[in-house]
Amino acid sequence: MSPAARQTLLVHACCAPCAAVPLHRLRERWDLQVLFYGPNIQPTAEHDRRLGELERLCGRLGVPLRVEPGPAEEWEAAVAAHRQAPEHLLSPRCRECFALRLGRTARVARALGAAAFTTSLSVGRLKSAPVLFEVGRAAGLAAGVEFLAEDFKKADGQGLSLALSRLHGLTRQGYCGCAPSLAEVTARRARRAAAQGGGAG
Question: Quick check: 20 and 168 in contact, CB under 8 A?
């Protein structure tokens, strides 16, 4: 599809630092709207903090932001069979999480009359672009709206995310968002601390 007519693109955003990359790269080609739907983000204080940062970024850029309610129970039900699977590029837990969030995004895009939708998730180094594209295309097919498959990690997307975060004063986070991810990060930090402490003795 050629976006020369500046059609509307709905961008699913997981957080402001990641969202800044597609918003920066796509704003000359599309009329952008952002969707925040994060039933995976725990605890509630973290969910609200990420939403607040995204509201601030969208306000600065003049991009409309839509917030979809998403109780944690929706996420728990979606990933129940794989909740204990570790986070990695091909994690079945992550795949089910993608399907939940991109499925909702596709339906909202269709309801809004958007020409297509995409996601900021591909900025993340632990997010497999091929898996995201497969899940996104399936969600788009089910909802009847096109999925824009773009790997925002490319062309140093991580570096751009850091630079834009500094530019806009965005708070970055140290884990994906879900409780298992937080537990994994906390355990890794504890192991490193213990190893460093052992080496010092």
Answer: yes
Report the predicted TM-score, pTM, of the whole model to 2 decimal places: 0.89
CA distance 176 to 181: 6
Q: Give the right CATH number for 7-200 from 3.30.700.20, 3.30.450.20, 3.40.50.620, 3.40.50.300.
A: 3.40.50.620
Domain ranges of the chain: 7-200
pLDDT tens series, the chain, 201 aa: 444 568 999 999 999 999 999 999 999 999 999 999 999 999 999 999 999 999 999 999 999 999 999 889 999 999 998 887 777 778 899 999 999 999 999 999 999 999 999 999 999 988 999 999 999 999 999 999 999 999 999 999 999 999 999 999 999 988 888 888 888 888 888 888 888 876 544
